[in-house]
Automatic annotation (TrEMBL), chain B:
Protein name: ABC transporter ATP-binding protein
Stored Gene3D superfamilies: P-loop containing nucleotide triphosphate hydrolases
Molecular-function annotations in GO: ATP binding; ATP hydrolysis activity
A UniProt-annotated Pfam family: ABC_tran
Residue ranges occupied by any ABC transporter domain in the UniProt entry: 6-235
Entry annotated with the keyword ATP-binding: yes
Species per Swiss-Prot/TrEMBL record: Dawidia soli
Highest taxon, organism lineage: Bacteria
Alphabetic keyword roster: ATP-binding, Nucleotide-binding
Amino acid sequence: MLYFLLQKEFRQIFRNRTILAVVLVMPLIQLIVLPLAADYEVKNINLCIVDNDRSPEAQRLTQQLTASGYFRLTGYTASYPEALALLEADRADVVLTLPQDFERGLMRDGGQTLSLAVNAINGVKAGLGAAYITTILQTYNNAVRVQWVQPDRFPATPVLKVAPVYWYNPFLNYRVFMVPGVLAVLVTMIGGFLSALNIVQEKEVGTIEQINVSPVRKHYFILGKLLPFWVLGNVVFTLGLLVARVVYGIVPMGSMPLLYGFVTLYLLAILGLGLLISTYCETQQQAMLITFFFMMVFILLGGLFTPLDSMPAWARAVAYCSPVTHLIAVMRMIILKGSTLHDVLPAAGIVAAMALVLNTWAIVHYRKTS
Amino acid sequence: MEQPIIQADKLTKRFGDFVATDAITFDVARGEIFGFLGANGAGKTTAMRMLCGLSTPSSGRAHVAGFDVATHPEDVKQNIGYMSQKFSLYENLTVAENITFFGGIYGLRNPVLRDKREQLLARLELEHAADKRVGSLPLGWKQKLAFSVAILHDPKIVFLDEPTGGVDPFTRRQFWNLLYSAAGQGITVFVTTHYMDEAEYCHRVSIMVDGRMAALDTPRRLKETYGAASMDDVFYTLARGAQRGE
Ligand SMILES: Nc1ncnc2c1ncn2[C@@H]1O[C@H](COP(=O)(O)OP(=O)(O)O)[C@@H](O)[C@H]1O
Ligand SMILES: [Mg+2]
């Protein structure tokens, strides 16, 4: 039974030029264009240094920061209120405060904590600035730590943390950072749209009646839709990985079977969502709009552009309910950081649960008799 | 007497307040060619979908091939063939691929499936077109193919919803020859049509008006009852009072 369903789906897929073009061309276009367009490597971050120490060591650090090319020193003062005023006036993105005993602390105690305040208006720029500073400080002196402060006059300022991912992308190359995320989006879009549109298309053409009037069991029918797109999703992912390697020289640091294992699991979830949507829609247009809505929310909240940590709590809560968030995180972990099964197990558990729920829901909701 | 193959008893379908099919009661005997007539919107498709197990009746009962359509729709499906009003073979698959697929999902397996496919292609004289996409065939051929595919698994009954819409009289005649030969093999034929000449070919004919069954008899007796010269006149007399229609 399943054999005939699969044979038919594959024949239809291979005969559909649009699907083939999308599957072959999308990985290339997206992976090459998106990371370039979304290149967040921000230069000219306005930095204000509050130097309470005025020691040679403090001078050296200042120089090092400005020499990095990322920062423009827009303020150098001994007064914290003055620096905050700059921040408020949008003339500074980041304020770094060196304490009075900065040099002495470094020499004598072998450790020092600096405080950093960021301008939350342009959160991305400031967040990046903070990340750059952290990295530069590390190379400057391992003993220097950064402490985050929240200025009173910026009550809405989210407490920014340096996402751990930055540590594994020490050169702050945003393309490297973006590629696994874009790969995740790619797999999501292909899987989500193809599966959501497919059953609806059969409804529109009317062939679904012919299936519904046959003795085909509905879970076979759903499985017959799921498996081909699942294979297709893996093909797209593989192509994407190849592009990442050829164009960006990105080779996953972690284990390939683990990476594919997770993607495979993830595809079941996203395809389940697509199929579920298609059981609720009557026209391809409806399916398209609804899928688009989910994709937008998932991708915007997925941590691709904005780190989860800098989102408000409600958005973070929504993000955790989105499979895309977990895929992006896991892709970065495995590809950039070389994480192991143990590290991705929680995400895998969540995604597996989603896959189970969505597919079961789709099968239950799909009715051969109305 | 042999148990009727289709029994409908006050079969009703409501969509909200609207009664699409209104308590229709009738029997169809095994091997019969049963014409199911009615103006557009009379409720033919709705009734047929209930009989095929595609739609659950709002009230009333129906047994098809011995199974209750409300409680055992999947058993009904095992025993019937259906050709819906919308053309419904896969246009981007070839003739042979469609036959294989539909045969396959009805449980036919290879030596048998292959034989059936060859026979079907030979009967329709479509051997030369076996590898053509169905979408590229003329409408008349598509309809004949769809019908043949619908009876590929030797169902007890075949339901045909306006199977000959939009084709020329010659092709319709060919189609009815296929129908007769299927009936000759013992397949009961339940067919809706708008063509009154086709109604004349049926053993018995029912006429639906606004969801109700207004008449049911052989074409000849219907003409007698309504003092009409042709089925056209019978239909016109009955359908004149209809409120619905498009
Ligand atoms: N799913 C539905 N929801 C609401 N109304 C419907 C639905 N299906 C059919 N109808 C209505 O029921 C009536 C009968 O339709 P149908 O059975 O298709 O008629 P026929 O096949 O005789 O032309 C029509 O008025 C149609 O609009
Ligand atoms: Mg109809």
